[in-house]
Amino acid sequence: MTTKILMYQKPIDEDDDVFKPYKINHDVFFGYKLDENLFKQKFSKIKDMLTMTSENRGISQYHISEIYNYYNSNPTAFIQPLHIISYYKQNSGEQFLIADGQHRVEALKRLLLNGIDRDVLYFVHDADNEQDIKKIIKELNSSKPIDSLFDFDKRNEFIKKIESEFDKIFSLNENHHDFKMNKIKLRDALDNIKLFEKINLTVEEIYCKLDEFNMAVKNDFSFKKKSTNEKDLYMKIAQTHGFYCLMYRDYLWVNKFYIYLKNEV
Question: Would you say the pTM of this structure is higher than 0.70?
């Protein structure tokens, strides 16, 4: 398509001096039209057109780094489409507002600084006024899919964080002792409760809560009320890595931690 990028025109009534939107017909400069409101373009071609709105959620630098690291390590990974609002504002002209995907945009900017210019898909939503903008963003945030492309990445990052903070906690043997864990079994336990789908926090934030939960488990332990086996397990954990959550055996601590998170968030 080679039509102009300008997407608005004066209404037929010449007495009406308000510019109103008409049917969007984007061109090659803004992107290749794949469907009624789905477009594709190199990120470098659209990045300077995109702006944030006051309706967007706050930016998490940690989450941006997560996404950047994933895309940088997986150059062919699918990038979830962005949602962009097309809005004409008097005295300001055409605006393209990021309705959903601000963390992806920031991660793509970092990639571009390293000479990596990815193709991106994006949906364009028309807005006639600021109320439309609020409505579109609210609907997008309330209708996000349950499954996230980054859930598995967050889970792996979470396990790495535990490993780095608690030395000697993992065993390569699936038939490990009670005071140690196996990465595969921990992965399966986390996936089973869908922790990263249900808790809307960054890995860093979830880990901080785990650190609090771990200390709560330690403080709740009473030698007076415990059996000899439990006392021995406590001392073994204290001497090796200090991850007292393992007092809940067979990965039951994952479920306990999830309940703790839900109450805290």
Answer: no
